[in-house]
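Why should sequence recovery work at all? Because a backbone constrains its sequence more than one might expect. Tight turns favour small or flexible residues, buried strands favour hydrophobic ones, and helices have their own preferences. The token representation captures these environments compactly. In the example below, the structure is given first.
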């Protein structure tokens, strides 16, 4: 550069200094306490400087500090942390005094003496920057640094961040004007406190409390001299002086702070030397606070919680706004997760399945009467590696990672039972239920008309009685019984109850489809969460609660509570109907029932198995009065295939069933979760629920059909002989073998009683009785006789001694 050029530039240096100081004076710097000794410099300003001052901002509008939010379990223990900036604001009294002295010593040792600007430092920096042709030295006071950090914190776009950090004199002048306003509004201690809460200390640690906990595992109030000096030195260059990645540079910077503190007589030479001899950090004490659900001990549960939070309009209008608010507003989110119950669920899944299996296992556990979702567990862990997944197999597709359910098989029969009992059908109600039944072309009424299928020949998967009661059919999971029962009462009341109990299609969120096979679980895809919560309604005697996973939300700083969707518990079934369902499903767990092997302890238990077509999924759902759970084992890799010949629990499957495959997962989880709790019992339903509004039937076995019909007619019943001919029985040939309904079941007044006639195949021969001469009866007045109903024979038509006997 030529000498003339240097001479030409020199006046610019002087001009810059005068303009800067003049602007400061015009902006009110003198009254803010800048202690400028050059008051006359105000007269140096020009029209340009006047315009600059005119448009400078007057007050610093700060944005709330970004704080981490925590997700807690039911006992208040943190299970996940969510943040964009790891920060926990503290008061000045919660910061070690030596930390306050260290940061002031190295960043602005005259902080308590000057106003918004340290004139000496600013002049020095300004001259050096001007001579260097760029802004190379800050010279900023702690107040100015606080202003700059506040503007960066307030920035929401890359352009705003760029403006807040631009190395220009315009930005510096605006920063100074803000600093003047801040010094008018806040005390020095308040400014220092805010600065320490806002500053970045590296490694995702914002604010002095988070930094102290991260690097040393202590609160800011417990920081000692070498720790405080290290943190004070970090502020200038958090990356360059990172004690983890660059321990030597970090120590050198820390020692600079210590020597400066010694120079200012804040500490003695011995204190400085002793501190210099200490290691900069102990790597074993560095505490990393992971952010996000992926780092949680319960990642699937956590993601479901976050998805629920994002539904809350109190946190913003859009999903992005809500996510930002959740991660920056310092929320305490308390959930329903119970770690004992969760441990039980996880232990059960680990015992009965493996992460490397071809098929998956999942279980959800819910508290009846509250809807509290106590636990969720599944066999495949969270992650992107082989054998891991991001899918949550317990929840609906509408939530982050929700898989969207599986067909749930015969667990749907519980809703048919509830609908039937609700319409007055007794649990003793019998239907002739062959192994296979033809239902093609038969109409099933729905809420919107009728439905049918051209060809449908369902069969039972287990052997059962030919005329089972509702209890018998539930024990054996008799398909042909429940299909006929659903046809008789209609699909609409069944679908209505299922809907009231929270059952929707987990893929679409729409109502379950009212198809002919509704009661067999072909109406849509269901999740363990849905099913366990629905069954919990039976356990709660008809009180349904929305699944409750978030119990409270409050501000970490103020304690202010946010409104959250509650469980909305309300009655959907009468206590009597729920008691009836419990009574029927309780019989599934006793000898002869499909769930008998899963019974444990002294508490009453109820449950239902479920198996889908081609064994693509198997279920067990059950409950006590204190806890409900639903477990599923299924092929979760589309397209779903038969699980036979796939691996489960490390072995190739040769069979799949609700009781033998999914049942043990339910059993172990429930047994561990209920361990140590008092036993509980269901409320016994009244006799009308069990037997209906019935009258007792007489004992008719061994009577002639005509005599039995007369007896029934005299008691207000109707009678007819059952189709199909004589049946195997130990009653004499031609006599009544049994009735439908059975004698022990009773029947409503006026009901038609079917008489089954014996063929005598199992009757034991008996010697003829000795002849008896009957006494001559006294003469009596003629009485009215009861005529047998039309169609009944007056002699036994099946007795070979009466070949000409015909029906009357």
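From this structural description, the recovered sequence reads:
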């Amino acid at each position: 550069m030529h000498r003339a050029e240097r001479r030409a530039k020199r006046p610019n240096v002087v001009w810059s200094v005068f303009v800067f100081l003049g602007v400061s004076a015009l902006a009110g710097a003198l009254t803010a306490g800048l202690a400028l000794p050059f008051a006359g410099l105000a007269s140096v300003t020009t029209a340009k400087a006047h315009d600059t001052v005119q448009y400078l901002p007057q007050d610093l509008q700060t944005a709330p500090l970004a704080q981490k939010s925590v997700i807690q379990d039911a006992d208040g223990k943190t299970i996940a942390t969510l943040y964009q900036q790891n920060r926990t604001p503290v008061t000045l009294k919660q910061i070690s005094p030596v930390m306050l002295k260290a940061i002031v010593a190295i960043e602005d040792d005259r902080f308590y003496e000057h106003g918004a600007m340290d004139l000496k430092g600013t002049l020095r920096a300004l001259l050096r920057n001007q001579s260097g042709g760029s802004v190379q030295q800050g010279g900023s006071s702690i107040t100015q640094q606080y202003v700059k950090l506040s503007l960066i914190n307030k920035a929401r776009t890359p352009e705003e961040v760029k403006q807040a950090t631009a190395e220009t004199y315009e930005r510096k002048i605006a920063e100074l004007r803000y600093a003047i306003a801040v010094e008018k509004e806040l005390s020095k201690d308040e400014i220092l406190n805010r600065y320490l809460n806002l500053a970045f200390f590296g490694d995702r640690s914002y604010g002095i409390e988070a930094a102290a906990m991260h690097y040393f595992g202590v609160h800011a109030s417990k920081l000692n001299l070498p720790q405080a000096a290290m943190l004070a030195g970090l502020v200038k260059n958090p990356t360059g002086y990172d004690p983890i990645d660059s321990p030597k540079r970090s120590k050198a910077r820390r020692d600079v702070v210590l020597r400066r503190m010694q120079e200012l007589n804040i500490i003695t030479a011995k204190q400085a030397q002793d501190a210099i001899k200490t290691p900069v950090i102990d790597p074993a004490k560095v505490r990393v606070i992971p952010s996000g659900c992926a780092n949680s001990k319960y990642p699937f549960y956590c993601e479901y919680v976050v998805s629920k939070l994002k539904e809350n309009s109190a946190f913003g209008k859009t999903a992005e706004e809500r996510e930002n608010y959740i991660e920056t507003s310092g929320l305490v989110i308390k959930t329903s997760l119970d770690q004992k119950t969760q441990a039980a669920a996880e232990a059960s899944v680990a015992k009965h399945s493996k992460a490397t299996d071809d098929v998956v296992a999942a279980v959800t556990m819910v508290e009846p009467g509250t809807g509290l979702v106590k636990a969720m567990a599944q066999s495949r862990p969270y992650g992107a590696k082989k054998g891991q997944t991001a899918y949550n197999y317990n929840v609906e597709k509408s939530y982050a990672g929700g898989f969207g359910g599986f067909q749930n098989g015969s667990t749907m029969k519980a809703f048919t039972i509830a609908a039937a009992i609700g319409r007055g059908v007794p649990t003793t109600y019998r239907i002739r239920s062959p192994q296979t039944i033809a239902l093609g072309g038969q109409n099933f009424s729905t809420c919107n008309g009728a439905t049918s299928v051209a060809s449908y020949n369902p069969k039972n998967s287990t052997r059962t009685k030919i005329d089972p009661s509702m209890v018998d059919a539930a024990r054996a999971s008799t398909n042909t019984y429940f299909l006929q029962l659903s046809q008789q009462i209609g699909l609409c009341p069944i679908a209505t109850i299922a809907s009231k109990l929270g059952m929707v299609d987990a893929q679409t969120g729409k109502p379950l489809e009212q198809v002919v096979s509704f009661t067999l679980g072909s109406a849509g895809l269901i999740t363990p969460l849905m099913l366990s919560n629905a069954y919990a309604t039976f356990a709660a005697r008809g009180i349904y609660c929305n699944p409750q996973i978030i119990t409270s939300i409050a501000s970490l700083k103020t304690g202010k509570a946010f409104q959250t969707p509650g469980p909305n518990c309300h009655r959907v079934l009468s206590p009597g109907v729920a008691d009836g369902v419990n009574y029927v499903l309780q019989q599934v767990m006793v000898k002869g029932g499909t769930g008998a092997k899963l019974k444990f302890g002294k508490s009453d238990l109820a449950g239902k198995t479920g198996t889908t077509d081609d064994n693509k999924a198997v279920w067990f759902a059950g409950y006590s009065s204190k806890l409900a759970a639903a477990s599923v084992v299924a092929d979760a890799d589309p397209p779903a295939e038969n699980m036979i010949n796939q691996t489960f629990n490390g072995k190739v499957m040769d069979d799949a069933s609700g009781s033998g495959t999914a049942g043990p997962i339910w059993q172990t989880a429930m047994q561990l979760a209920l361990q140590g709790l008092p036993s509980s019992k269901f409320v016994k339903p009244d006799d009308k629920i069990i037997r209906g509004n019935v009258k007792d039937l007489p004992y008719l076995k061994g009577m002639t059909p005509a005599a039995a019909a007369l007896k029934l007619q005299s008691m207000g019943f109707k009678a007819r002989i059952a189709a199909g001919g004589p049946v195997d029985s130990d009653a004499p040939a031609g006599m009544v073998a049994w009735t439908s309904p059975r004698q022990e079941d009773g029947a409503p007044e006026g009901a038609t009683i079917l008489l089954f006639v014996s063929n005598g195949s199992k009757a034991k021969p008996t010697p003829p009785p000795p002849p008896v001469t009957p006494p001559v009866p006294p003469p009596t007045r003629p009485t009215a006789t009861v005529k047998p109903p039309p169609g009944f024979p007056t002699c036994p038509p099946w007795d070979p001694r009466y070949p000409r006997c015909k029906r009357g």
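A few observations help interpret the result. The two ends are 136 Å apart (CA to CA).
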